[in-house]
From TrEMBL:
It is a multi-pass membrane protein. It holds the Pfam family TauE. It comes from the Bacteria. It comes from Candidatus Hydrogenisulfobacillus filiaventi. The chain crosses the membrane at residues 12-43, 49-68, 80-97, 103-118, 139-158, 178-195, 207-227. It is found in: Cell membrane; Membrane. This is Probable membrane transporter protein. GO terms for cellular component: plasma membrane. PANTHER family: MEMBRANE TRANSPORTER PROTEIN MJ0441-RELATED (PTHR43701), MEMBRANE TRANSPORTER PROTEIN YJNA-RELATED (PTHR43701:SF2). Belongs to the 4-toluene sulfonate uptake permease (TSUP) (TC 2.A.102) family. Its main location: membrane.
Amino acid sequence: MCTGVAAMQWLAAGLIFLVSGFFAMLGMGGGMLHVPILIWLGYDLKQQAQPIGILLNGLTGLVALVTYARHRLVDWKGGLPMAGAALVLAPAGALTARLLPDRWLVGLFAGVVLAAAIRTLRSAADPDPDHRPPLGRRLLLGSLGAGLAAFLGGMLGLGGGTFVSPLLMWMGYPTKEAVATTAYIVTFSSFSGFVGRMGYLSASWSLVLLLALAAVAAAAAGSHLMATRAKPHWVKVAYSMLLMGVGVKLLW
């Protein structure tokens, strides 16, 4: 029995490693796939998959943020009020999730995944802007959008990067700066959302530690690749295809 549990944990760690590295390239923590992976492996949605998923989201975002900061890609000034809004509203979303049936959460989760896939694919061929949008627009629209994203992310066990990254690109951020600033915001919203779920976490610390180490190692590699070599167009296309598959699977 113990051998079977250990094998399941190592399988989860391997899948989390692959997902975290890929999502770190987009400034996201990977909670969008962490949660489905843990559900598919038999872990409980509200007591295991969502709390662990949002914790891993925060760790991946933090490691990616450090890498992007070293390459001077983060919009610290424009992202600060977005991160503040995320910090406040993510726990509210986490508490709201306790009031909703599991079936509703999974259905909403699938809808979010598919919407993000379509939006990202449609923007893949757009030319990359040369400059950030005006500061006023970043502060106003960014704060409102990031706050809503954090609330939904906290409710679904995500860090909100699913919504923030397309929002920043729509606002006119260059792709790599949108990715880097998303990591900034996701780090705040994820750890804040985890605090709101900490009391509901029911999982072995050996599992949590193993998955955390896998996420951190993958995030370091993925964010370095994005900052130095990756082409945003191909990353977004591959990301969209992957999300569509996950959304269809969840609905099924």
